[in-house]
Design goal:
Blueprint (H helix, E strand, L loop, with lengths): L2 H17 L17 E4 L2 E7 L9 H13 L3 E7 L9 H15 L1 H5 L3 E8 L10 H18 L2 H14 L7 E7 L1 H18 L13 E5 L6 H11 L10 E6 L3 H15 L6 E3 L7 E3 L1 H4 L12 E10 L7 H7 L6 E5 L5 E8 L7 E6 L13 H13 L34
Parallel strand pairs: 2-4, 3-4, 3-5, 5-6, 6-7, 7-13, 10-13
Antiparallel strand pairs: 1-2, 8-9, 10-12, 11-12
Length: 425
């Protein structure tokens, strides 16, 4: 394609973004004041939508979502922020709804007495189905996600839903915040300030984070913030605690592993970067450019967990598929199951790598579990997420590790550095 044609296509993409209607897709009305609430088999799903600048599109959607959570007895609340190529009426809605229905029927969830509530945070991750233009929208939609993440309303909605759940009491609710792609970017930035507030005593440990477990899949964000967050946890000696934040990325995700670095390398030419160390015992400094041009799941200096096929199989203890088994049984050593051949369960492990043990897990995932950028709703990926849910959830797993204590003095010697320090021999 010639340079002139590329420029013309980009202009068309930008124009199309501006011309697409901005009305919410699940708008409430006087005639139908609860249009933003959908009832499914064993669950209810609330929609909250945001415009291009991150503002609420219909504040009654937030009111409905908060009231739903408050009125649900013993709620298990899963708030989902979708990513690129999705919105409040795209295929992600059906797939997320399917996960809610599956969890509702899982014996471990029913035995715990949870009632499923989903909250779908929608934005214009998709504004055209036109080939080429659709692919070129990546950077335009990334900029929109960054505005949503940096402005107020989206985090306000996440916090309001979390607060509504916690009104039931710690023992009578559990909340998960899930983000995919650019939704992962939004979630990560929301969580960063909450962690900082807890570290410095501005919020109590049981109320600081916007969910009990935060999970992002193939996040389309640079790894500068991830490095800073992992470093902040590392200098507070958070070893041997359960995960608070889990970032999982397929090694075969070309959107974040190939397209993202190409685009950010071009943008990096107009920026200035300091030298910083990766978290860990090694104190070698490298340019922040390396973190700016890579996502957390493709930055080898930050990855602290990998999925490993143990090449072993077992019979399901209860005769259930892998997802239900992972919710019921916490196998030792962060081992989890995936559905195998002939009704067997294959054993895999979320194995820690490196010397950084913090409650921010940056997980590199085998492509047989997640094959590409959008492949988060397949059976194997959902089974792995169910395992993480149990590993981090003391209500389902009595052997869960304790929560990290963040309000303690930092051990600054663990990450002390200067811009012009002399390397040690």
């Amino acid at each position: 394609m010639s340079p002139n044609r590329i420029i013309a296509v980009c202009i068309c993409a930008s124009s199309l973004a501006g011309c697409t209607h901005l009305s919410p897709l699940r708008e409430n009305s006087a005639a139908n004041p609860h249009n933003s609430i959908v009832t499914g088999p064993g669950y209810k799903l609330a929609f909250i939508e945001f415009g291009e600048q991150g503002s609420y599109q219909d504040t009654t959607q937030l009111t409905n979502a908060v009231e739903l959570v408050e009125k649900t007895e013993r709620p298990l609340v899963i708030t989902y922020v979708h990513g690129w190529q999705n919105n409040a009426e795209s295929g992600d809605v059906e797939k997320f709804s399917g996960l809610l229905a599956r969890l509702n029927s899982a014996p471990a969830i029913r035995d715990a007495g949870f009632n499923l509530v989903g909250v779908y945070l929608g934005w214009r991750g998709r504004f055209t189905p036109v080939p080429v233009l659709k692919e070129l929208s990546f950077w335009n939609r990334k900029a929109t996600a960054e505005r949503i993440a940096s402005n107020y309303d989206c985090y306000d909605a996440i916090a309001a839903v979390s607060e509504a759940a916690r009104k039931h009491g710690t023992a009578n609710q559990y909340s998960v915040l899930l983000g995919h792609s650019f939704g992962g970017l939004i979630v990560e930035r929301s969580v960063a300030h909450a962690i900082n507030a807890e570290i410095h005593g501005h919020a109590s440990a049981d109320r600081s984070l916007p969910a009990d477990l935060i999970l992002v899949v193939n996040p389309a964000a640079d790894s500068i913030l991830a490095r800073q967050m992992i470093s902040a946890l590392y200098i507070r000696d958070t070893e041997n605690t359960r995960p608070m934040f889990v970032s999982i990325t397929s090694s075969a995700d070309r959107a974040t592993g190939l397209a993202f670095p190409i685009g950010t390398r071009l943008a990096s030419n107009t920026k200035a970067f300091n030298k910083v160390p990766a978290p860990g015992k090694a104190k070698n400094l490298e340019s922040e450019r390396a973190f700016y041009t890579s996502t957390p799941g493709h930055n080898d200096t930050l990855i602290n967990h990998v999925t490993v096929n143990l090449r072993k199989t077992i019979d399901s203890p209860q005769g259930h598929p892998a997802l239900e088994t992972n919710l019921e049984h916490n196998l030792s050593g962060d081992v989890f199951t995936l559905d195998g051949a002939n009704g067997k369960l294959d054993l895999w492990q979320l194995k820690q790598v490196g010397d950084v043990d913090v409650p921010y897990w940056d997980v590199k995932v085998d492509p047989s579990i997640i094959k590409d950028h959008g492949d988060l709703w397949n059976e194997r990926a959902e089974a792995m997420m169910a395992a993480i849910f149990r590993i981090a959830n003391p209500k389902l797993n009595p052997r869960a590790k304790p929560r990290a204590t963040l309000q303690k003095p930092p051990n600054l010697k663990r990450l002390e550095y200067r811009q012009h320090q002399v390397p040690k021999p």
